[in-house]
Amino acid sequence: MAMLLRYSRRGSSVSSTVSSSQDLFTESSLSEHDQFTESSPSSEDQLIESSSSAEDQFTEPSTSAESQLLGSSPDALVVAPNDVSVSMKPEGTIEEQISHEINADETENKELNFVSPPVNPSWKDNSGMEDITYSSKKQVCDYAKGRWVADSRRPLYSGFGCKRWLPSPWACRLTQRADFSYEGYRWEPINCEMPEFDRFAFLRKMQDKTIAFMGDSLGRQQFHSLMCMATGGEESPEVKDVGSEYGLVKRSGAIRPDGWAYWFPATNTTILFYWSSTLCKLERINATDPDSSFALHLDRIPTFLTKFLYRFDVLVLNTAHHWIKAKFRANHWVMYINKKPIKNGMLLDMMNVKNFTVHRVVKWLDSQLPFHPGLKVFFRTRSPRHFDDRGNCNNTIPFTRGNEVFEEGSRDKVVETAVKGTRVNILDITALSALRDEAHKSQYRIFGTSAYYDCLHWCLPGIPDTWNELLVAQLLCHWIK
After folding, report:
1. What's the CA gap between 93 and 9, in Å, rounded?
2. Model confidence over 385-408: pLDDT tens digits?
3. Largest CB tally within 10 Å, which of 101, 238, 344, 421?
4. Model confidence pLDDT, tens digit, residues 119-172
5. What's the mean per-residue pLDDT of the chain?
6. Alpha-carbon gap, residue 183 to 238, rounded angstroms
7. Helical (H) or strand (E) element with 427
8. 3 state SS of 213
């Protein structure tokens, strides 16, 4: 029934109005299907964008910490969840170290946490794109290596426009900021040619396809960026809100829906975002108690993903800045494995928890891809923050940190390690974004400036547009070869 709905949208009469609550830029985690609000916007702001180094400590582990995480000695023991000690193999990752005990418990309970969604039988790879040029070079393109260059054709859409698709607090042209030089640059890979983005050619390429973003507020920024790019920042009344098809509706008492989905009828293209800041399943511990804490199941995929994966042709995931204990306490999250709270062991270490979860999600998706031969999955690397030692980000001068990236490998070792050897692709944006500290939202607001600095989120138009240009280039690489 869902497949029939997907290809009958041309006659849809669903309203295309965007809720004004979308203008609240600071995220609050949204529920699975029992919807809830994790915290007030003000406390959420402070937790997500704090200048604390806690997040850096686990996303960029030291060599010794990383070696402990990714391997162990033959005699090493890990106290697994539920007080079970499990002997480890020396080459095992933390995901491998714990998976045996998890899988054994799943078998015993005769319940699979990672279910296979329906296969999408309608996909066919007939999407040649003669009107976009792609490099004929045969080497594999590493889009993460390159340089920022001035380009008078930037930005790709107006920061004064795109009002339907862009939350106003992220539209820095509407704030008191006076310098917008950050808009006038594009990323130029050094070893391959990246096609110039053309919104009409892009939509033709994405005909009969659904592009899904899933993650936190930085994933949401990438979604809003692509909506502005695909519409040229125009109102585009023909583009329809189809969020209800995916259960993305604002529920009673919620600040905003769990995400958004929009359908372009001319090409039957859908672009959507679903909020899942940890990529784990969340549910109230006591469903009858509105003040109950939430079980964050590290070993269970969000229901939204298992339910709708068969409808997606492109899936872009991210998770990064919520893996700090302060966030877990504020949101009343309790970590669970095998439907039981974790009381001791390696998974009480936040660095281990994030690494385990990313590996687990990638492993599950890799197992599903043979059933969905048309699906392209990308895991986007961490978006860098730029707080200085005072918790500020005042710089407005481009490239004070340089304008080139030549280093081998990704700075996000968690994602790089997780996708290695799988069919999940890496969308590596960390190093190139780290050069653009002047492009954050900073202290600027619509009606003045704030003592609080947002050095995590980006101005739009801005750096997330480049992430999408890299995404589109990699999609062309997949579908042309």
Report:
1. 44
2. 999 888 899 999 999 999 999 999
3. 101
4. 444 443 444 443 443 343 445 789 999 999 999 999 999 999 899 999 998 999
5. 78
6. 28
7. strand 425-427
8. strand
Between the CA atoms of 143, 145, 150 and 152, what dihedral angle is there, to the nearest 10 degrees?
0
Count of CB atoms within 10 A of residue 462's CB?
25
- Supply 463's token pair: 């750096």
Give the DSSP H/E element, type plus range, for residue 102. helix 94-109
Please tell me whether residue 30 adopts helix, strand or coil conformation: strand
Here the contacts of 438-441 (C-beta below 8 Å, separation 24 or greater) are 438/181, 438/182, 438/395, 438/396, 438/397, 438/398, 438/400, 439/182, 439/463, 440/386, 440/393, 441/169, 441/170, 441/172, 441/175
DSSP H helices, 309-459, are 325-331, 350-368, 413-419, 430-434
Q: Which amino acid, one-letter code, is at 118?
A: P
Residue 425 is given by DSSP the state: E
Secondary structure class of 296 (helix, strand, coil):
strand
CB hemisphere CA count around 394 (13 angstroms):
7
Share of the chain above pLDDT 70, in %: 70
CB 212 within 8 A of CB 258: no
Q: Write out the DSSP string of 271-292.
A: EEEEE-SSSSEEEESSTT-TT-
Q: Kindly tell me the sign of the dihedral angle through the C-alpha atoms of 105, 106, 107, 110.
A: positive
Q: How far apart are CA 311 and CA 183, in angstroms?
A: 34
What DSSP line would sit under 135-185, residue for residue? ----SPP-TTSEEEEE-TT--SS-SSS-TTTS-GGG-GGGSS----GGGSE
Please state the rounded mean pLDDT for residues 14-34: 36
Euclidean distance between CA atoms 462 and 323, whole angstroms:
25
Beta bridge partners of 316: 213, 378
- Residue 478: how many CB atoms within 10 A of its CB? 12
CA distance 38 to 481: 44
Instruction: Find residue 448's DSSP bridge partners.
Output: 445
For residue 2, the Cα-to-chain-centroid distance in whole angstroms is: 25
Least confident of 226-230, 251-255, 477-481: 477-481
